[in-house]
Specification:
By secondary structure, this protein is mainly α. The chain contains eleven helices and two strands; from the N terminus they run ββααααααααααα. The chain folds into two domains: 47 residues, Orthogonal Bundle (Arc Repressor Mutant, subunit A), CATH 1.10.10.60; 149 residues, Tetracycline Repressor, domain 2 (Orthogonal Bundle), CATH 1.10.357.10. A hairpin with a 5-residue loop joins strand 1 and strand 2. This is Transcriptional regulator, TetR family. It holds the Pfam family TetR_C_43.
């Protein structure tokens, strides 16, 4: 049986079965490591989790951007699709609120994705192209709510991106209750009018929760 598969590697060349297997292991490991540590995580850590030598990682992905592109193109596309779905909601306020809650949880669960969405310098052409689709999708969501008269008119799509990124840093993946508390506070500030404050989730912020917002990125190794 031939050891060559039909899957293509760099330059369109077919990958051998062992190379294809290693590539899959590396991508799975990088997804796990980047989600936990961010895009500055070392290739040696990715190699350790994948169970391959660090040289194998560099052979498959000579540049960090190659690995970022391979991992995040589809993930960014999913974020764009979620924003477009929210903008199409017949209830504009519900669409905005659902997107804010979902977006903060998605970025809390995946630090790498949060960095890719926030940085224009990450990844290669395909990732940049997908990311460029996100701003008009969020703009449509914002304008939909503003036309309905429920969202204050001085808010822009970058304001939404900023607060999602900031709240996404709160509490870690397991503290959705705490993040949703802050999203509720944010929504009360964004709405044009509200007779009474929206009830908050019954949790309080701890010093550890505050510290995680200011956590410094891990250096590359």
């Amino acid at each position: 049986m031939s050891s060559v598969t039909q899957a293509n590697g760099e330059g369109g060349r077919p990958l051998r079965r062992d190379a294809e297997r290693n590539r899959g292991l590396i991508l799975d490991a990088a997804r796990q490591v980047f989600a936990a540590q961010g895009l500055d995580a070392g290739f040696d850590e990715i190699a350790r989790v994948a169970g391959v030598g660090v040289g194998t990682v560099y052979r498959r992905f000579p540049e960090r951007g190659d690995l970022v592109e391979a991992l995040f193109e589809q993930e960014i596309d999913a974020v764009v699709a979620r924003a477009e779905q929210a903008a199409a909601d017949p209830d504009p306020w519900r669409g905005l609120a659902d997107f804010l809650h979902w977006g903060t949880d998605a970025q809390a669960a995946d630090r790498g994705l949060a960095q890719v969405l926030a940085s224009a310098g990450r990844g290669h052409e395909r990732v940049a192209r997908e990311r460029d689709r996100l701003r008009p999708a969020v703009q449509a969501l914002v304008e939909h709510a503003q036309r309905a008269g429920v969202l204050r008119p001085d808010v822009g799509e970058l304001d939404v991106g900023m607060v999602v990124a900031l709240i996404g840093r709160v509490g870690g993946p397991e503290r959705a209750d705490l993040r949703h508390r802050f999203v509720t506070l944010l929504l009360d500030g964004l709405v044009v009018r509200r007779d009474t404050p929206t009830p908050l989730t019954p949790v309080q912020t701890s010093e550890d929760d505050l510290a995680c917002v200011f956590e410094q990125p891990r250096p590359r190794r």
